[in-house]
Each structure stands twice: as C-alpha cells, then as structure tokens.
Design goal:
The complex is a heterodimer of chains A (about 575) and B (about 350). Chain A has about 575 residues and is of the alpha/beta class. Chain A contains 17 helices and 28 strands. In chain A, strands 8-7-6-12-23 form a five-stranded parallel sheet. A five-stranded parallel sheet of chain A has the order 14-21-15-16-17. Chain A has a four-stranded parallel sheet with strand order 2-1-3-4, sandwiched between helices. Chain B is α/β, with parallel strands linked by helices and about 350 residues long. Helix content of chain B is about 40%, strand content about 10%. The chains are: A alpha/beta (about 575), B alpha/beta (about 350). At the A-B interface, strand 18 of A face helix 2 of B.
C-alpha cells in the first residue's frame, strides 16, 4: 500500500450524499419524498440529502456530480427504483465525478415501497427505513477494482450443421481462428438429408454445399470430425475445451483454447414408436417425413401410389409424450412434400390431417395456398389411429370441421415428426453450465433481449439446440450468435465485475462445500495451501458459496457480513420516534 | 370419436365450454354409450380427459333420478346385496364351498378379492376356481372374505353414482382394516383399477392376478409343465392395459405355458378394441346395439388363425363369449381366461 492510500485509509470518514427520486409521481404520489430527504440529512455521515423529480435525468445526474465535487462526497446513496434498472447509470455518474463506481448504494423505494403500498405515513416510514439502512451500508462500502482480462482471439463452434457452419464462417471471415467440433463424419446436419426446401423448392444440397465448401476451404477454420466435447474449463476470453476425437480405431483427446464458444448442436427427430396407435415400424406403409425426403431423392422418384396421407403434429403439441411445444417446421415440411407428391403423382389422392396450419413465415401462407390449389386435401383433425386393411392401411380421424368420423385408406402414411432436444444435451448442459428450458432445449439468457446469449458469459446459442427453427431462422440466429461472440474477441479484453466472492484463507478449512454449490466452477482447492481459491473471472457474485461456508470464510464484495448486518441492525433497531415529527410536518 | 356412436367427446366438451351454465343434457342418450375404455383420455394430446367429463355428466342424470331401469336395479342391488347382479349377499362365498380356502380372519399375506362376477356367474366362478389352484401351486398365502366381501363399486362410479361409490368404498376400507388387509389380488381389472386409483391411497396395495402370477413364474415359484398346444391370441382388457399400462405380465404368463403359440391381433396393447363391457355397459345396451364391438373383436381373433381368445377380465370373458355364440363360431374359437389356460398347464 502506497503512502497516500494508507493515509487516506487512516483518515477515512464517510461523507455521504443521499438523493431521493420522485420518479415523476411513481414514488412521490405514495411517499412524502421531502420528508424522507429531511430525515436522511440527520443520519450519521450524511453531508447532504436532496429530492428531485428524476434523478436519472441529466439535471438529476448533474446534481449528484456537482455535490461530489463541491462537498467532497465519497459515498452516494440513491433512493429510487430497483438497482436492476439504474445501478449501471448511477455507477457511471459517480465514476465520471471521480469516485470509485462501487461507492454507490441504492435504496429501492419504488418496486419495494411506493408501487406495492398505498401511500401515507406507512409508505413514507418504510422509505425512511430503507434509506437509513442504505446509508448504514454506504458508510462501510469499499472501493473495488474493475479488472481487464485478455481474450484468446479464437472461437470454438460445437456442431457442424447449418447453424455451426454459418456461425463459424462469420467468425473466420472477421479474422478469428475457428474450430468446428462435429460429432459425425460429415458436416451439414439434418439439412444434408433434405431434398428441397420450402417455400422456394430449392435443392437443399445446393444450400448445404455452398456453406460446406466455404467452410472446408477456409484458411482459418479447422473442422474436427467424429469429435465430442468432454469438458470445459476457463472463462470468457480464456476457455479450454476438452475434445475427444476418433482417429480410426484410436481416440485422441485434445484441448482447444478459445475466447468464445458457440453451441450449435441441433435437434433430434421425435421417435414415433412412442405413438403406438400410429403403427410406425409395424406397418411398412407408415413412414416419417425424413423417410419421405429420401424417397423424393431416389432416381426413380416417388413410388407409384394412389393415396398418401400426411399426419401433422406427431410428437409436437402433444402433452402425452411430454412435448407440449410446436415444432414450427412440420406444417411447411408436409405442405412441401404433399405438393411435390401431387406434382410427381398427379393421379394420387394426397390428404393432410392437421390440428392448425401454422404458415407464419415469409411466403409460407402463399405456399400453403399453392398446395391446396395443387389439389392437396387438408382435413382438420388429429388421426386417432392407423389400422391394417388388406395391403393398405386406413387412417381414422374425426374431421372436426364436419364433426364426423372419417377413414381414409392409404398406400403411404407420412408422419410429420417433430423436433426434440438432442439426447446428449443434458450432459452438454452440465459441462458448459447451461440452463435448459422446460422443453429440454438450451435456454437463452432472456427470451426477448438476449435470445442468443446464455447465462455463461462468452457462450452463445445458434440453431435448433435452442428450440425448433427452420433454415432461414437458423441462419439468422447463427449470424447473430457469431456477431455476439465477436464482441469480446474484437475488444481483445473483457471487463470483470468486481462484485465477487473473496476468501479469508485463515478461516478456510478447505472442506469444499462452497465448490459443491458453485454453479460456475469458480472455486477450487489449492493443492499446496489446502484452502479454497476463487477464480474472480468465473465468479458471478451470486453468494451461494458464502451461505454454504460453515466457517464464515467467504464474503461477497458489496454484500459483506459487516455491510449487510449494518443494514439489518438499522431495520431491527428502528424506533417509531420519527413518526411524530413526520406527522407534524404533514400538518 | 367412435364410428358406432353419436357420442363425440370433442363436441360435447366444446358445447360445455361455450354454453356456460345453460348446457342442456336432455336427449343426450349417447352419454350412456361410453364404455370408459380410456382411449380418448390416453390419446388426447392436450390431456383433456373426456372420459372423466362423461362420467361427471352421467352424475347429473343420476342426481335427478333419470336413469335406465336396469341401472336402478344395479344400484339398488349394489346397495342392498353388495353386488349389482341382484344376487343374495349370503351366497357370495358359495363358489368356494368345499375348496377349503382360508378365511381372511385367520390371517394371510394376501386377500384374494374375488369380485362380483367371479363370485356369482357360473362362467366367472370357473375362473376363480382356476386362479385358486394356480395360487396354491405358486405358494401364495391368501385368504378370502366369503360373504363378508362386497362390491368394489367401480361400475356404479362409472355410471355416475359417486355417492354410492363413496359409501361402498368406506365400508370396504373398514372391512379391509378389520381383517388387517395389506395386499390384495383381484380377478378383475376393474376391481384392481378402482382399488389402485379410486380408493384413498393408504393401508393396502392392489395387484391384478396376472401381475402376481408373472412374478411367481419369474421367481420360479410357479411352474407350468403340461403342454397346451394351441394357437392363442390375447385381448387386452381396457382396465388392465390402457388404464394401468399392464400389457406385458399377461403375455408373460401365456408365454410360460409350454406349447402355447401366442399370436397378436392388429389392435393389441394400447390399440386394443374395447369389448363394450365397461362403464356400466354390462347392464346398458347403448344407442346402437346393432353393431357390437365384441363381435368385431371375435372376428379379428379368428382372422389371426388363433383357436383360443384369451383375456384376463370377467366382463371381457362374458361379452366375447356371447359374441362367439352370436357368430356361431364356437367350433372355430373358444374364449378363455388366462387363469383357466395356466391352470390347465399345471
């Protein structure tokens, strides 16, 4: 510690400014903000307390900055909305005025007070309590250091389907080294098995090959075939991905360093064995939409049949098999296949049984109209069973528009099987510390604002591993994921939030209970010292370790025992004395 | 929806939803067509459970007392005699006369709960007697309640008589408690289902006899040695299969019979076609008596080349037997309970 810091420490006394926000009428209508400000001014260490219409506005911010300079404030309390709303704003404000950004404490008198209480004395009293607790904590706040960590200028893409190839290409084009890890012996994923795409009826092979050739020949892309991720360590900017690669009969384990990771592991088709009433694998006439794609690619074309029935929503929107969600592509896959069937076999009767037709994409509704114009018969109803009838099968359903049962004899029944999460996604989620939503697909950090991010900094999602998508959406999401993954790579360094745990080694027994509750792999046992050590880059500051530690050796910066107990003491020791002056002031 | 009835569960529920409290049940005789086979409930992708709605709507008729005379008779007989068959309570145990079976009062690991049809119906009694032989051979320690046994009330519940069901269930539980019953073996899938799923889940555990036999066969405690060299097809009873997922144990018992050739009908397991004996339909014809599913079923069995149609439910046994007679197919197909087949192989 340098001399002037030591001196500052010795002479430190809190000089606190308190700023009570009206939030228009959001707070001021329920809380007597002027009284709260007058009360705050009487609290220990408080040099100034003001109220203002909008503290987050430019004049509000200027008020705070001005006081810091003029009055030599060193700790700031803002009593306003939730810190989730404006903590970054006010941290930036005090940093601009020369304070450490962590010398700020917020009292939430909106969500936790004015919005949830009818106004009057109780609401104002509660606001006073919250402010008093925040002032007590502010007096004990420490300056924290925001650290920068260098970033490895490379990315790993897990999965070599359309999403993985596109994301890898964008990253490589931007100048970064990319490793694509593919489980199978070829790139292209499910798209490589398709005949033509909806709604333009382009050969799918053209799309796949366009990407595949660019990926294969790109100087900055390395493709590892027949490879699987075994584990992940490190953190954003400095990941180590353990990969097992099949080399003939041998297996090779390697480690790849990367700054960011894109997960593009795709989906799996629903297994129609789970719907025994449909007779898949019992009747040879019953096939899946993927089987039909293969028939479409035969040189001999489709078999010459008289009646084809398509069945929608097989394994989608079906709670009995645990897949309540819509797979989003099957309506258009069947429309495409039914249309191609009508074109190739003009004499054949082609029927589609559906629950609802979801033709939501660009050109989809027009394509669906086209299918009906081509003579495809759409019948609303979910077939209840398929039975044998001579050398045909009969599809039995209720036509729910007619309200009567129908039976259609078919030479071929095509089950539009839905999408499911990959079998291995639970294991991968464990390795990468990713969350999964109720449907089993990987979960994005926010459904609207962060649709390609995960809760792991530096790990992004692309394609159907996040949920069912068509090729258009897959490519869009892959490019979005690549753009997001590029941000840390291009900045070449990442900022690490200083609100992390810290360990008092002299109290730590190295029992490891903290590590067992840590969701981010941030705690490890030091091999020599026998105490736990924290990787502050991995730590997200959640505090689970601090509660798990039996000896109280772990604290979280900005939420230390000392700081938190000071807040609790204020609330616990609260005397109702201030009520009478409050009454008086209200007249 | 079924082909043979006007009953359309989807329209029924949609009308209920849109009509609010003004829903009129008058003239909806097709509500009595439902056999409670559970196919609608097990297949509905939105888990709407139409069967339960239908049973609840039947309750409306029952409350108003507007029910078929056959149902009134069955309800009254269940209430007074402990069986829906208008048979006297004090002859319930007569089927076991001379068999020297242990009364439950003497204490036993299992209660063999016989059920109404196997207690009184001559065809059903044969099944009970065959099953007793098998259980003795397998070393199952069981007792019976004799005249103290009373209807499980599964059928009155399905007919919408919830109040009578509650009363019967309470009485039965009191009897089970009095005799210290902890494990129950039933002849009928209907009794098994209601004990397992409708009775309060405390005190005792119910199994269908095919589950017990399959377990004993697997453990080697029961051995079937005498050949039964016939081609057999198995009809899954709704209350064993679709309702409770017991598909494999009956087949395992049949598979243990030496020489028996088991063939499957197209509609087997989850696709099994109902015999129309459930849901109180043993006493009600339904709105379309011209088409009987049991007759379709018998034809399906004949088409497999089987000479024996096996089942494991007293209601299926009776309805299928009647269908064989109706089709004059006695020389081509015989209906047998699995217990009867296995007992012949002892």
């Amino acid at each position: 510690m340098r001399w002037h810091d030591w001196k500052a420490e010795m002479t430190f006394s809190p000089r606190i400014g308190v700023y009570i926000c009206h939030c228009g009428i959001n707070i001021a209508a329920a809380v007597d903000v002027a009284t709260v400000a007058r009360y705050a001014a009487t609290l220990p260490g408080v040099q100034v307390a003001r109220d203002y219409t909008y503290m987050c506005s430019s004049p509000g911010q200027a008020l705070i900055k001005n006081d810091i300079t003029e009055l030599g404030l060193n700790r700031i309390v803002v009593a306003s909305c939730s810190p989730r709303m404006h903590e970054p704003t006010f941290r930036a404000v005090i940093a601009e005025a020369g304070l450490n950004a962590y010398c700020l404490e917020m009292a939430n008198i909106r969500e936790q007070c004015s919005w949830v209480h009818t106004g009057g004395i109780p609401a104002t009293t509660k606001a006073m309590q919250l402010v008093a607790a925040a002032v007590a904590k502010a007096a004990r706040l420490e300056e924290l250091e925001i650290r920068q960590v260098p970033v490895i200028p490379a990315a790993v893409v897990i999965g070599g389907g359309m999403a993985g190839m596109q994301a890898g290409l964008d990253l490589a084009e931007a100048g970064f080294q990319v490793t694509i890890i593919e489980r199978l012996g070829q790139l292209g994923g499910h798209a490589a098995q398709l005949s033509r795409t909806f709604p333009m009826l382009e050969p799918a092979a053209d799309l796949v090959h366009t990407l595949l050739e660019r990926v294969s020949s790109h100087p900055r892309i390395k493709v590892m075939m027949e490879s699987e991720v075994l584990g992940l360590s490190g953190y954003v900017g400095n990941f180590q991905v353990q990969v097992r690669q099949a080399q003939g009969t041998e297996e090779l384990t390697t480690e790849i360093s990367a700054g960011t990771i894109i997960v593009a592991t795709g989906f799996e088709l629903f297994d129609p064995h789970q719907k025994p009433e449909l007779g898949y694998a019992v009747y040879p006439q019953v096939i899946t939409t993927l089987d039909f794609e293969r028939l479409l690619q035969q040189d001999s074309g489709l078999p010459d049949v008289k009646s084809i029935v398509f069945v929608q929503c097989v394994g989608s929107r079906d709670q009995t098999v645990g897949n309540p969600y819509c797979s989003r592509i099957c309506c258009m896959v069947s429309a495409k296949q039914a249309r191609l069937a009508r074109q190739q076999l003009p004499e054949a009767q082609v029927t589609v049984f559906y629950m609802d037709v979801r033709a939501f994409g660009k050109g989809f509704e027009e394509f669906y109209d086209g299918a009906r114009e081509d003579g495809v018969i759409y019948r609303r109803g979910n077939p209840s069973e398929i039975l044998r009838q001579g050398d045909k099968v009969v599809v039995r359903a209720e036509d729910t528009l007619l309200g009567e049962p129908v039976e259609i004899a078919a030479d071929l029944v095509v089950l539009a099987v839905g999408m499911q999460p990959q079998t291995g996604s639970a294991a991968l989620a464990g390795m990468l510390k990713l969350s999964r939503s109720a449907d089993g697909f990987f979960m994005e950090a926010h459904p609207k604002l962060r649709p390609i991010d995960t809760n792991m900094a530096g790990v992004f999602l692309a394609g159907c591993c996040q949920g069912p998508k068509d090729i258009t959406e897959t490519i869009a999401q892959a490019r979005a994921a690549a753009a997001a993954a590029m941000i840390p790579l291009m900045r070449a360094s990442v900022q690490v939030d200083a609100v992390t745990s810290f360990i008092q080694e002299e109290l730590c027994a190295g029992c490891g209970q903290c590590a067992s509750v840590c969701g981010f792999g941030a705690l490890t046992l030091h091999p020599l010292r026998g105490v736990m050590v924290l990787n502050p880059v991995l730590c997200q500051g959640c505090g689970a370790c601090a509660t798990a530690c039996p000896s109280g050796a772990i604290n979280v910066h900005q939420f230390t025992f000392d700081q938190t107990m000071a807040q609790v003491d204020v609330l616990a020791d609260w005397q109702f004395a201030p009520l009478s002056p409050l009454n008086n002031s209200n007249g | 929806m079924a082909l043979k009835t006007r009953l359309n569960p989807r329209i029924l529920i949609y009308r209920l939803l849109t009509a609010g409290n003004g829903f009129d049940l008058e003239g909806r005789d097709e509500l009595w067509d439902c056999t409670t086979c559970s196919t609608c409930s097990s297949r509905c992708p939105k888990q709407v459970k139409p069967m339960e709605t239908i049973i609840a709507l039947r309750g409306y008729f029952v409350e108003k007392g507007r029910v078929h005379p056959n149902m009134k008779t069955a309800f009254e007989s269940t209430f007074r005699q402990g069986n829906p068959l208008t048979m006297p309570r004090d002859s319930r145990g007569a089927w076991a006369d001379g068999l020297g079976l242990k009364p439950m009062a003497e204490g036993a690991e299992y209660l063999y709960y016989v059920g109404c049809t196997p207690s009184y119906d001559p065809r059903g009694q044969k099944v009970a007697q065959a099953l007793v032989k098998l259980m003795q051979a397998a070393g199952v320690d069981f007792g019976i309640l004799g005249n103290d046994e009373s209807c499980c009330a599964s059928e009155v519940k399905r007919l919408g008589e919830a109040g009578l069901f509650e009363a019967m269930a309470e009485d039965n539980q009191a009897i089970f408690k009095e005799f210290g019953v902890q494990k129950i073996i039933t002849t009928s899938p209907h009794c098994y289902n209601t004990f397992k799923n409708d009775y309060p889940k405390d005190g005792f555990q119910a199994q269908h006899y095919t589950q017990v036999l399959a377990g004993r066969l697997q453990a080697g405690a029961l051995k079937l040695t005498r050949p039964f060299e016939k081609t057999v097809t198995y009809h899954d009873p709704c209350y064993l299969g679709k309702h409770n997922g017991v598909f494999d144990e009956p087949r395992r018992v049949l598979g243990s019979v030496p020489g028996l050739n088991l063939v499957e009908m197209d509609r087997s397991r989850e696709k099994s076609l109902c015999c129309e004996g459930g849901g109180g339909r043993m006493w009600l014809e339904g709105t379309n008596p011209g088409t009987r599913l049991a007759q379709l079923r018998v034809q399906e069995a004949i088409d497999t080349g089987a000479v024996i149609l096996a089942t494991a439910c007293p209601f299926c046994l009776l309805t299928l037997d009647e269908a064989v007679k109706h089709l004059n197919a006695q020389d081509r197909l015989q209906v047998m309970d699995i217990a009867e087949i296995a007992a012949q192989a002892l």
